[in-house]
Amino acid sequence: MIPNKYITWGNSGAIIRELAAYGAQRAKAVGPENVYDFTIGSPSIEPPKKFLDTVDELMKTVSPIELHTYAPAAGLESVRKAVAGYLADSFGVEYSPDDIYMTHGASSALAIILAALLSEGEDALVLAPYFPEYKIYVEQAGGRLIEVPCDADFQTDLDALEKRLTPKTSVLIINSPNNPSGAVLSESSVKAISELLNRKAAEYGHPIYIVADEPYRELVYGDIEVPFIPAFYDNTIYCYSFSKSLSLPGERIGYLAVSPKAEAHDDIRAAVNGAGRALGYVCVSTMFQLAAAQCLGVTVDISKYDNNRLLAYTSLKDMGFACVKPDGAFYLFIKAPDGDSQGFCRKAMEKDILLVPGDAFGCPGYARLAYCVSNERIRRSLPAFKTLAEEYGL
Amino acid sequence: MIPNKYITWGNSGAIIRELAAYGAQRAKAVGPENVYDFTIGSPSIEPPKKFLDTVDELMKTVSPIELHTYAPAAGLESVRKAVAGYLADSFGVEYSPDDIYMTHGASSALAIILAALLSEGEDALVLAPYFPEYKIYVEQAGGRLIEVPCDADFQTDLDALEKRLTPKTSVLIINSPNNPSGAVLSESSVKAISELLNRKAAEYGHPIYIVADEPYRELVYGDIEVPFIPAFYDNTIYCYSFSKSLSLPGERIGYLAVSPKAEAHDDIRAAVNGAGRALGYVCVSTMFQLAAAQCLGVTVDISKYDNNRLLAYTSLKDMGFACVKPDGAFYLFIKAPDGDSQGFCRKAMEKDILLVPGDAFGCPGYARLAYCVSNERIRRSLPAFKTLAEEYGL
Questions:
Q1: Do the beta carbons of residue A239 and residue A106 sit within 8 Å?
Q2: Are strands B353-354 and B36-37 parallel, antiparallel or unpaired?
Q3: B47 contacts in chain A (CB < 8 Å)
């Protein structure tokens, strides 16, 4: 019998993809330049030259058999060594190659680690707003996802977190820089969360793990620093993807790093291997592993995203829309003027502005604008936004 | 709490990888030319020129952003169309693009389809011998894997199959050409299995699906034809990988095809989407999808595998070892002279011949020799095999 949950997940939740498909359809009707599609968080900046050159060089110097052969399930030894060394040098946490497990981007890292950490009937908490697939990964693992609302600036509401912690809590998922709000968790927040979790873990007699989902780590603007959570909280599993830093989302390459100081470290590493096998993973592309390992710390030129961020934020703010200035990622989270995000997105759509309702991210009352597009698209959309503002009497 | 099953799966079952690691270690000690490692089924023939040229061309003509961007979860529309058309033209089953779902090789296709077809407590039958990961995928889906022993020629024992069919049977997994035996299921076997399953499905009042795992379809020798199971049995989900036909195992590209005539077709397609999401898959590499779609029907030059097959088979046979001549894949399944496959592999290992015990494939009493190696390695190993044969008094 076909399990109902998969039919439901298969038929639902594709709102972002559906909106994008509508946008493509609409572009055929009115011209692509007249559709202001801000739905998909897909990088629009060329991968770094260093990365392209490295791939080129690998294709010239490594035989195709070697370049396209199986890698070990956890990743190539040399690559895991490079990643561990990079993390140790950058953030002062002494990872070893065995702490690293290469994954098909952050999504597979999350699916694997949540399977490895959650038993049937346990809770995973998540700081809202959050990426909707978390819920599926948690439920697939037999757990329950519990949302922790944030404060008005999208920072942590510690009381709200404490209220939701129970002896059934195994995991707290944190995504900073955040999709969809663009907020970066402050160091003081991380410290306060760590203190709270340590206290509660002692009370409950079992660890509470933080799963830190950080594909946007390098996409921060101004002098913002992103605290490295494993440096503050030992029971952290860090999930990373090269999708955004190298503009490489289609190649599915990332990793997870189990803190060397995590409780039950060896069991977690074994369970990660086991869950990886059980979910059907074999290995991450040898070619892209080798290339990424040579580009650790290399990042796309984010000045274009920054220009877009400032243009979108300043313009919408000036029109009267309420939004918090994003410090990272490539999203602007706009408050629906009357609190009805679905209505807001519908009204925007009538003007060919495509936004994603915040409901999809556990945060109704907002809409997400992905500004990883051409600057021109933002510029051309402004008159339509102006009309929208006027409709709401802003 | 960390689920025990993942710890167990993580710490176990890596016998092939462990043997290969031992081989690499041993090679350092005695020189690589003196270790006869036949453990890993990793292609050793250069990918076809057509494929390498296509990748080259794509890298020159498509912008890096476009080439490395997200693909839709099910695969690029143009690619699914090409695959559906290729299957229809080649085998006469009229697939549509919506029947095709691109996967990270056959392993992820199997993990996804078994999740999508099995509910808790149901049985998946498998014709032994079989690839050990099947058991994990079935158990991960909450099902139970039941082995159906084969006859002495590694063909189907229909009575054994019938005895194991019950109302709890949802799936029959068939892998032809077979890993590890190299056997190809005959058309008459496929017809007889189809008839039996149709009869039993009518009796039970629910479909029994065949999952046809066929990464070795093109690797057959002489004038052997591999029957296309969906052409004989409507309730078939076909799982394919380009790993072997294009010598591309590290890039993880393949697909599954739901027969257009399968019962509950739309629910299966939805469940495949849903299971893909739940297991953490996002998309298959855009670049390799585009390349593979241009290489449908293109296959590596298998004459080298064929030469290896004949050399290994004839030589071992002449020494007195019992083995069935393989028609496909790149494995020779050797009978342990005294029936003790573990002891046989141990004795072989003492002579630096590395084989995998058949126990790993649900078929004790045999050992697998992967002949996808250099012809020289086989040639150089023959004196050691000769000594082994003499030890057994052959």
A1: yes
A2: parallel
A3: 64-65, 68
Task: Reduce the secondary structure of A17-71 to three states and give it as a string.
Answer: HHHHHHHHHHHHHHCHHHCEECCCCCCCCCCCHHHHHHHHHHHHHCCHHHHCCCC
Q: Are A135 and A112 in contact (CB under 8 A)?
A: no
**What is the rounded distance in angstroms from the CA atom of residue B118 to the CA atom of residue B141?**
6
Tokens of B272: 């495949």
CB B293 within 8 A of CB B246: no
Beta strand spans in B83-185 (E): 100-103, 123-127, 144-148, 169-175
Q: Which residues of A touch B281 (CB under 8 A)?
A: 104, 107-108
pTM, two decimal places: 0.96
Using DSSP's 3-state secondary structure scheme, residue A193 falls into: helix
State the pLDDT at residue B13. 66
* E strand residue ranges, chain B: 36-37, 100-103, 123-127, 144-148, 169-175, 209-213, 236-241, 254-258, 331-335, 353-354, 356-357, 366-370
**pLDDT category of residue B94 using cuts at 50, 70 and 90:** very high
Give chain B's mean pLDDT: 96
- Please report, for residues A82, A371, B31, B337, B372, the alpha-carbon distance to residue B345 in angstroms, rounded to integers and kept in the order given: 36, 60, 21, 11, 19
The mean per-residue pLDDT over the stretch B316-331 comes to: 97
Query: What does the pLDDT average to over B171-200?
Result: 97
Q: For chain A, which ranges sit under pLDDT 70?
A: 13-14
| Of residues A118, A241, A375, the one with CA closest to residue B282 | A241
> What are the tens digits of pLDDT across the range B277-293?
999 999 999 999 999 99
CB nearest to B17's CB, from A65, A72, A136:
A72
Collapsing DSSP to helix, strand or coil, B175 comes out as strand
